[in-house]
């Protein structure tokens, strides 16, 4: 029988402040939309390619809620910006399909059996070409889906139109108001004659809405799949409070997804983000990286490889020792702040770079954030009268001291790789495949396998996600012989490692 | 309160064959002593430095058991080769002390409180200068210790003498018979008026002996600390069978120790082992590394850095995907076996390199093993009449095919880094510190914290081991502010990560 | 006395075809402007930042030649797009000054002596903020300057305006016709009461024009400084033909400039160019790099560091052996063309990638060129009826085979790093400093030191360029003691290496 | 026609002190034999493998000069330790042949034509298995050879015996007196009825002897091939003084040989040397490398790759800038001397590490030399009464300060890689092939191609050496098409680069 690992023991960690703070931020929804999860921005909405889409949002001021639209089959069970953009969106989806071989492979296997037959999935994620490939895969696997956006800005209208045209009830457009946001979610859930039995959430808003408005729905719901840090924490809170009434799958912390979202993706995007914004040369530059988790490890490795001299700060002695063994001087930020050319934060903490640090940096120092929120650099402390801000490029500000010293602040302290770089489709493919498999697992699990708790993706599923992506690299996996499997005490098809294995 | 993590869920893994096989090997004890754990061989007993000690073992044929020896204080509660070698052993210990700053720091802190006051520790490990620093540290922390060797060949007689001279009852010498081996263990345990309350074991023989001969002793024993893969597995077997009657600490799988024993240590020792045996040049060589766990990762990184072209084989798709992202072609062994210059096994599996592979290798191909046992290369298959073996150096055999093809087999397929390289004292320091802290934790834990189960070292202790080694690198840890700790929901002193964190 | 090294022996190399071809290309001037030297494009005219400047070129259709403009001092000895843009151009120049510390240091030292006092320099280069810093530095060193653009598209109008406003006679704008191009050059040279005595050229057009129109001018000219591959070859041709009538300095081949233009710059720009155009992930990708010169070495090192698997092709066995020792499989292109994800050319050769290769590539393969011309990929062979071209982004074409296979062709086979990336100011700083020092050397050289030949920059000057850039890295050079200098037989101030030293 | 490059311009460099000093050292010949060139020590005489040979030198005290020996063919025209050791020596030679494919390839090609037919070569080099492969190759190419050793300690007696048995007049044994040394050389040269027409020298002693004793011999000598730094300098001195009466080939500075002797070899041997002597761990260690030439570049790259933090000192601003761009902090030694764990010298200079530096190093600091002489560390300054020396291992001294501080000095400041590591046969293969080709070139050159000057190996020959070693790596060179060769202005068979190309 499949074994799974509960991470409910991590509930013992205290409720962190930033989660409480998050709730507060919700109130300011319209003013500062910061609800963008790390890994959900795709190529299609990157800085460099948004231009081509910009026209459609400006030329039509009518709210989609006030429009009457039908797709070519006559259905009007959707709400998107402009159904006529469907063809263009379809082309985007087709391109994405080419780079998401794992989902396409799932579709092929589903030609015989439909593992999601009977599933009624309500989803709330960024709506991009990659998400569309996921949604259409879920459909091919037998599921009925209804979808809303988890962010008021991130929807690609053309893609939403293409989905609507293909018969998926999508309620989402770029530039929703907060009221629109909840209206769209409600339209997904509150349908006559249709009730969801699975939830796919990114951020926890959909889950929250159902809890608040339609708690009875949980009776029929077989499980929640949640992919964001924030949403996962909300689930653990529910679990701790004894209020989680269905099994939930934390796909954020699956091995494969974590490594790609953090180590592998950031190893490339730190270089990309810095180059696109500053055209700087990396060779010979002195850099301090705050935090040596997966993100920090990726940043450090990339910059070292490009000839930068990298210093690391850490609070955790184990990660600190790793930094030492990997060839980085472990320092306190104060020790090097005067000499470095670049400061990069990857801690997930707040006020790691303070005004005091900023005051001591040298002229021309670049400051940016690769961590998970916009709190790491105390940007607010720079909003004082004696400092002048000069926007020199999109996402690049010069903050100028009275003596003429300039600090180059990127993306106003928000995530560099989201703001100034793009997330490769391959990374999104891993996330989407993980979500699909988690839905399949929860939907098909025998009664009793999962309790009302938060689970990590079973290792075997995690391994399966990885194996679906190996063909991209023409990589050939070795199979255990019977004799070897017996010797190791393993099943030939995995799982291959104990749960505590660290990779 | 300190939280700990039970790994008893890993018991669900089946009893592996190699562990059963291990039991069989015990019977051949005198013929093939392979009971050497990876990380316990020190500089002092390395290939290159044994010469200076060789004299003493040959010039005196009397068994230590038949000798009457007293140390300078008149005690004869020990059994070593030659108490007169104490001074030379003391010098070795002093040198080791310089490279084991963490234990020395523990001693300093123990000047006030004695966390092991009242502890009666019986130990069974390799007896080297580094172990002596550990034993004397345990003494300084308040413990009474009695010690035997866990291997019949690995004792440094001078060090054993120095310990005996300092008043530690040590029963051990180089070249024990199997009967001597168990006699020594028994002398540690079976003492009138003294009964152990803590066990420090390496391989499980001491634990096994007490279970078999003095099961009642467990009533007073507060816990077992075990550091070897083999010993840990035996404990899990006991636990599974419901026979584990005291808490046991698996220190083998602590993060810090694992990373140093495997990734960091092997990254260096693969180069060292290959150079010392073959004087080969790494640049441009084609190498296949079987297995991409921590050991494989270390080997691959080192060889890539030296200009080798590295191929990887794997059975686990997650590790396979990591190999791809780290820049290695993932292949099946058959695909590259004809072209590679070096084959390195790091799987922990058996018959990874078969006679068929060996038949297909090209002339001059080097074959060696960095995994945890001597089963990975099917060396037995090379003992056939048509093949000629030629010993060209210590640890280096040429196996010659009828057509003149030569395969260079290192260490007869045993661990290359143990046989042909040395383990840096720094790595041993981490192991010894981990053992000391595990003893302190188990000994001081409040009633009920630990059940009759196998535990991993509490993360906070693991972090403490790491922090004690940071000064070696002049590394400066950052401390959380109160505000930041609150924001993150962490205690300022750690633990800093959830248990499932992968590092 | 200063020793210099003539490279006239390299004249023994035959006149290469591509130089002959170059002359032919000149006739197609208006159709395909490819006269962009590798290292002369600056941040300010990069892909990502041109948008802000695009307005000015479209809103005013009057030719600058037909306009009447005066700067604030009343001078009209210039011809630029719009003198009113001077202020914006000045800001760009000031930003560039911050990143060109070496030229600023030269200005400071020139406060006492003016090494170019009396120099009348006519220049023909790309006109960018960095060039402006050079021109104004030459002015500060005592020179009078007149300037034209070496490329009809690369002028930054704002910067030209700022120079004109500051009193430098500049004749240049973005979007010149070929007639404009030569008219601008002529306006620099053909001035009443002013005759140049130094030439700074990039591509050889200015030199060519004077040879053709005003050969008598060479009587007063003390030397030519030329920085492009093309221009240097034209000089060697003149020298070989006995027609070079003044000394010329080949600054293209100075050590410092070469390393930065090629190895160090390409190491970063290959990643940047690929990311900006394709958002691809490097990890695990199979790449073949054609050519292992400095550019190839840079590309290979960067991609290997990012986790790509890199193959190399080479014709020169010495470079091939280096590729092997650096850890790359040396192959023929045919051997890997079916399996690679990316093909990069860095040979300087023609038809390295042929239609036959393109036919065999797999779906999605990316093809691009980092070499010195647009000949390496046989792009013309893709202009056949059965292939469909689809422009998917700026600089990115999909070429689609009848079976649906898509090849991703970047920049239509032109230089990737020029077309899709930017050249860091620091690299341009090294080039500009080298040019300034070459001018100073030629202008101040005692009679007879330089004959009518082509010279490399004296090593001591090359070392000086390097030393002026060390402070950027807070790098501290060690000085020889008298005793050490005597021991080594060196002057304490250099040169430190024999001419044949390879670095 | 083949073009060659005279490096006589480098004569302009002053006669360095260390060359003068060298002459002085000759007088102390018997006391301190330091005449070991970097690249001539082979595996067979490495530290770790000498033991097997030690017996023969001790059991027979008769001087070879006093013995009567004949080989199996009855010849006694040789003088070796013991002709009976020939068989064992032959086996060593056969092993070396397997790793020297380039010379074996030359032999094969020589089956038709004998390019050295008529050549009478007198040689003076280290006599090792690799040299024997060279000598026998020269024989196979048609030459007659007579050979002496260039060092009184480095001869492998078995190999000398094998050569004598095969009919080569060899005069050499391990442990010659200075008188023996010159006697052996004389026996090679001063032969009735035989006069050499080619010289192969390593260090210049043979050349010196002929100049002094038999100057008339030069009338028939067609050229000298010299491979050591010292010997090359002596030749330049002769040339400068107008006393060089035959062409000489400086093979020391050929590209291929330089890269392998320095960059590629040292990249590996620095790690090997440090590990074998100290068993230290590289990860996290702070290291300062003095000098960033090829040797320094190799050391820095290797240590950085192993996780050390590396600082560099340099006097040459160009190399300094390279160090910066490669990611190393450029410092003065004083800035880091207190904090580093390892100091490595690679400058070729003297007193780079002074007593003052040594006084300031921290406890346990390791000091070693990878440069070309034993002058870099001022070891003499450590021979003062207040410091205690303790030999802890072969080649490892602890120098102990009055306060207990210990410095770990390796190889007493002599070359670490020669003293404590081995030179791979592959590197020696490149050297030997270069020597063979230089002899062929000089012997076959048409009258007048070479004057009485010192020449570098023609680039085409250098390329040929490289190409002969490519098969070792299964490397496949690409060939130019006719069209491409024309385009590039190159001959399809090379040379492929101008002389000033830097690789």
From TrEMBL, chains A, B, C, D:
Its cofactor is NAD(+). Residues 262-423 form the S-adenosyl-L-homocysteine hydrolase NAD binding domain. Binds 1 NAD(+) per subunit. Substrate binds at residues 128, 202, 227, 257, 261. InterPro entries: Adenosylhomocyst_ase-like_sf, Adenosylhomocysteinase-like, Ado_hCys_hydrolase_NAD-bd, NAD(P)-bd_dom_sf, S-Ado-L-homoCys_hydrolase_CS. Residues 24-76 are annotated as: Disordered. Signal peptide: none annotated. This is Adenosylhomocysteinase like 2.
